[in-house]
């Protein structure tokens, strides 16, 4: 078999695993919208089995993808501006706020995505997410939108944890505060791990 034929066969058999490998090696930011289940599924199918604990999963995922942005979480952080968090709502609000500050120009082969009106099309959703992130990053840089302050109830809880730790002197301050802040995130990820841990695997696509 010729070298070119071997390469073509290799690429065909490896499929999307080659894309995942390139993403890991590039260490470039990964951007999505409400995509924790998607990235968990990607990890499970193409990288490794999901770990048993949230902390292990977070550490291993961060090793593969050091920088991850979720535009739904970003929108929630600016909820004085964004009041609904579906992809379409965040996109439309971002476009309204953009006021032509940023002009998007795409190669001809991608321009048909601007004509798609339905969500849940992979290309269209990625297109929308990219626009949202670009606009939000610019608006945040310009100070057009401001992060929402922590709710008083949660702020009070965090302060109480700080006071307890300072009094006891037994636990690192920053560590405990982070535990309070990420409780909801941990519950969601644990649910995801339980969902995918025993699910079907595509063995040919795993490392």
SSE run: HHEHHEHHHHHH
| Anisotropy-based shape | globular
With helices defined by DSSP (H or I, 4 residues minimum), what is the helix count? 10
Average pLDDT number: 77
Uncertain stretches: 197-207
Quickly give the structural class.
mainly alpha
Radius of gyration: 21 Å
Strand-residue fraction? under 5%
Side by side, the strands of the main sheet go 1-2
State the separation between the terminal residues, measured CA to CA.
24 Å
Largest sheet: 2 strands, parallel
Total strand count, please?
2
The residue fraction in helices comes out at 55-70%
What's this model, at a glance?
This protein is 60% helix and 3% strand. The chain is mostly helical. Strands 1-2 form a two-stranded parallel sheet.
Provide tags for this entry.
single chain; about 210 residues; 10 helices; mainly alpha; disordered C terminus; two-stranded parallel sheet
């Amino acid at each position: 078999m010729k070298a070119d034929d071997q390469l073509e066969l290799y690429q065909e058999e490896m499929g999307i695993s080659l894309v995942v490998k390139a993403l890991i090696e590039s260490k470039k930011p990964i951007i999505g919208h409400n995509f924790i289940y998607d990235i968990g599924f990607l990890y499970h199918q193409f990288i490794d089995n999901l770990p048993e604990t949230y902390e292990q999963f977070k550490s291993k995922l961060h090793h593969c993808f050091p920088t991850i942005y979720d535009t739904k979480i970003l929108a929630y952080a600016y909820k004085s501006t964004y009041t609904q968090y579906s992809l379409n709502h965040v996109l439309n609000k971002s476009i309204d706020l953009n006021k032509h500050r940023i002009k998007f120009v795409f190669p001809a082969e991608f321009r048909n995505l601007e004509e798609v009106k339905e969500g849940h099309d992979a290309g269209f959703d990625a297109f929308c997410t990219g626009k949202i992130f670009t606009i939000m990053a610019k608006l945040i840089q310009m100070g057009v939108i401001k992060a929402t302050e922590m709710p008083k109830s949660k702020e009070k809880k965090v302060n109480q944890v700080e006071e307890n730790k300072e009094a006891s002197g037994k636990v690192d301050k920053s560590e405990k505060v982070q535990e309070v802040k990420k409780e909801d995130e941990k519950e969601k990820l644990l649910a995801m791990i339980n969902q995918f841990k025993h699910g079907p695997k595509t063995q040919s696509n795993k490392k």
